[in-house]
Amino acid sequence: MLFRRRKPADFAERLRIFLWPRRSFRRSVRYYIKRALRLTATPHAIAAGIAAGAFASFTPFMGFHFMIAAALAWVIRGNIIASALGTGVGNPLTFPFIWASTMELGRLILYGRHPGEVAPLHLGRALWHLDLHDIWQPLLLPMSIGGLILGAVAGVLFYAVTWWTVSAFQQQRRNRLAERARRRALASGAPAAHIA
């Protein structure tokens, strides 16, 4: 392959690039935005896909975000590829804030301002024994409830911004192509009646 690395990246290097991109986060974000803008779909499909991915990022079910986003995008007639790009909302920089906010909102909804006696969570022991029952009530249930609400809010915001941006981008692209076709027709000497 032409642009393959001479020495393949080992696990530590791939992990470092995943946590901190080689160039910068700004460049990575710009890349994802351009990928979403250049998808060949309607503004609604792209925006719905991005919104589905953003919503899935707020759920506590790590490892299933792509599947949740794809299923939701399919239900709301969104673009599946855009839903995968939308899961980029959840990343190593944003996950701590997402998890803390969904946990606090879920606890507030479930237990009110004064939760009383909430059993302490021994997360290490529960994960070591893979006991879902021990982590469901104190951790996953509040994060799921908080994630549904905050994910819906994030989905609506991402839908609105993405729809407006994609609509403007596609209109600008159509205008550019029409202008290029008009110039080409003028250069070839086509009659003015055939120029759009």
Write the layout of secondary structure elements.
Elements: H1 11-19, H2 25-37, H3 43-57, H4 65-75, H5 80-86, H6 95-111, H7 123-128, H8 132-188
Overall description:
- This protein has eight helices and no strands.
- The chain is globular and about 80 Å long.
- It has one domain.
- The chain has 196 residues and is an all-alpha fold.
- Helix 3 runs antiparallel to helix 8 and helix 6 packs across helix 8.
- It is 69% helix and 0% strand.
Enumerate how many helices there are, as a single number: 8
> How many strands, what sense, and barrel or not for the largest sheet?
none
- The domain tally reads 1
Oligomer: single chain
User: How many individual β-strands?
Assistant: 0
Structural class: mainly alpha
Binned strand content: under 5%
Give the % helix: 55-70%
**What sequence of helices (H) and strands (E) makes up the elements?**
HHHHHHHH
